[in-house]
Amino acid sequence: MTTSTITRKKPLNWRRIGAWVLVAVAVAVTIAPFLWMLRTALSSNSALASNAGNLLPADFSWGAFKRVLGLQSTEEAIADGGSGAAINFWLYLRNSVIFATITTAGQVFFSAMAAYAFARLRWPGRNKVFAVFLTTMMVPPIFTALPNFLMIKNLGLLNTMAGMSLPFLFMTPFAIFFLRQFFLSMSREVEEAAMLDGAKHLRIFFQIVLPNAAAPIATLALLTFIGQWNEYFWPLLVGQDENVRVLTVGLSVFKSQSPQGALDWSGLMAGTLVAALPIFLLFIAFGKKVVNSIGFSGIK
Amino acid sequence: MTTLTKQPGRASGRSGSHHGRKPQPAKRSMTSRLGDLKIALFFIFPAVIGFVAFFLIPTIRGIYLSFTEYSILGEPTWIGIDNYTAIFADELFWNAMGVTLQYVALNIGFQTVIALGLALLMHRVAKSTFIRGALLLPFLVANVIVALLWFWMLDYQLGIVNEIMSWVGLPRVAFFGSEQWAIPTIAFVNVWRHMGYTALLIFAGLQSIPNHLYEVANLDGASPTRTFWSVTMPLLRPVLVLVLVVTVIGSFQVFDTVAVTTNGGPVNASRVIQMYIYQKAFGESDFGYASALSVILFVILALVAFVQMKFLKGNESDLD
Q1: Element housing A167 (H / E)
Q2: Of B13, B141, B260, the CB nearest to A181
Q3: DSSP states of A53-82 as a string?
Q4: Alpha-carbon distance B207 to A121, whole Å?
Q5: What is the mean pLDDT of chain A?
Q6: B241 close to B263: Cβ distance less than 8 angstroms
Q7: pLDDT digits over B51-68, tens only?
Q8: B91-134 pLDDT, tens per residue?
């Protein structure tokens, strides 16, 4: 980052103060709902109604977390204000991990291969093929979702991890575009030296290109993983079954299972909190990378 | 790490490839004209499978299905443009379009203005990565989670927002439960989720404006407001247009938030177009009709992108 903080003369002081107040308000508005999520998750559901305005957990209890994680018996859960409906959280968590990991690994790796061909190899029709790939960025997901659903159904892959993963597994135009930019900007010298030594493309790809592009590949993988972890529409279509149900779908089912008007809010908030936890952790570990990647990634 | 955000990466990329092409001799044999074709085919093979199987064929099939009647059981029967004529006479379709447009207008309107403000604040006073990270957080959390969180906070009886409103003497509002408020509420929830992200996109654009232009404006005695309209906005325009194209297209496809909170209700008040497509296909097993609806959505999105790029001249920069 450049160190060029604006070097104008100090503007009027109250102006700066006002600006900081606005920043503080924006941060508060952004963060407060997450704290409220935590506060609700640590409350007893039956105590929420009489403490709606209490900023601290109402009748503090770990019950909601226990309920969501299956550590509470049905009777206890109902006594605690839960619906008694089972939420198989560990299973959904496992499914989300598998789904997001497989699709991220496949998508990033295969896209990197394609990006290498588009950036570093010379072959007739290269730019045309790349342009065709890019046009698919314009196709809205809902448009391909219906035919893809039919295909997965015809293949007998509904409610399987394969059916959930396949459409995401091979590439996205964005991933190819993103990596191609970096491969293009890498110096050719090392590569050419290796070539003179008789190294084949496969070796160059694995031993030179991939290690040198480790940072952008990690960023892409991180963004992809977050996106896949949060994916809802496609798993909703093809992964309704318990065995492959991911967290996003599981949470919406959990919400709709409760009787109307008597939602298990504490349980629901505990569930959302645990579901979002991996994202929070990734964010704490790699937040800087994500934040700094936004300008480029979002626009193209 | 920071190279990710920088334009020069792209520029040098382009010149890099140019440089790579230069040393080639003019006369070439057959094999060198084919270049690395064989090995290239190997490298793009998986991506081509993905492209053909999950983008190309579905696109063609989707268009084909839109001219058929298909209830998932049996074979699709060709019915010409009947689906399209039915859609244009379908009140629920027009309702869905109206609802979606209302959502897009509210969502994009507020989001863009707030994000622009936040981006300027980040640029002027708060460059810290921590603050940018905090503002980005909601965007990284799943739509479903954000929707559930706000569904709770905006609950009529127990929600903290209604609680606070009643403290200050305002009447309680059934945010998700009333026809009048459902769409504005959903739009607000997604403004909250996206504002930090959009602000970061704009912020990246602000950083690419050369500092000396501000210094010149300052020396000329331009007021901050004047500088904003005469320096910042014109130079930011290409970025703003791209941001608008991306966010408007995303906004038209709102689904998750609606599905988790109102499910299209009350009555038809929040049945946005993607919800309608979903219900037609998976609720009523009318895949032909649903496909025709998604073709229409596709065309609308393409038009929106085209008009925005043309009308706002997004691909021309004033910087040169």
Answers
A1: helix A161-169
A2: B13
A3: T-SSPTT--SHHHHHHTT-S-HHHHHHTT-
A4: 34
A5: 84
A6: no
A7: 999 999 999 999 999 999
A8: 999 999 999 999 999 999 999 999 999 999 888 887 788 888 88
Contacts of B287 in chain A (CB under 8 A): 146, 150
Pairwise CB contact (< 8 Å): A291 & B40: no
Tokens of A38: 């935590």
Contact A252 B260 (CB under 8 A): yes
Question: A124, B256: Cβ pair inside 8 Å?
Answer: no
DSSP output for B8-43: HHHHHHHHHHHHHHTT--S---HHHHHTTHHHHHHH
The residue among A12, A111, A182, A232 with the most chain B CBs within 10 A of its CB, best to mutate, is A232
Alpha-helical runs (H) found in B22-142: 30-34, 37-51, 57-65, 82-88, 91-124, 129-140
Asked if the C-beta of B168 comes within 8 angstroms of chain A's C-beta atoms, the answer is no
End-to-end CA distance of chain B: give it in Å, rounded: 27
- C-alpha–C-alpha distance, residues B53 and B113, integer Å: 40
Radius of gyration of chain A (CA): 24
Q: Which strand (E) or helix (H) includes residue A11?
A: none
Q: Which residues of A touch B259 (CB under 8 A)?
A: 232, 236, 252
CB atoms within 10 A of CB A150: 20
Distances (CA, A) of A45 to A197, A237, A269, B126, B166: 69, 31, 10, 39, 22
**For A246, left (φ over 0), alpha (ψ -120 to 50), or beta?**
beta
- DSSP label at residue A207: I
Q: What average pLDDT does this structure show over B29-56?
A: 84
- pTM across the whole model: 0.86
**Alpha carbon distance A52, A39 (integer Å):** 11
Pick the closest to residue A112 from A231, A228, A222, A214 (CA basis).
A214
Chain position carrying tokens 């008694």: A84
Residues 57-96 in A contacting B (C-alpha not used; CB under 8 Å): none
H or E element, residue B221:
none
Compute the nearest-CA separation of A214 from chain B (Å).
11
d(CA A179, CA A165) in angstroms, rounded, equals 21
The pLDDT value recorded for residue B29 is 53
Q: ipTM, 2 decimals?
A: 0.87
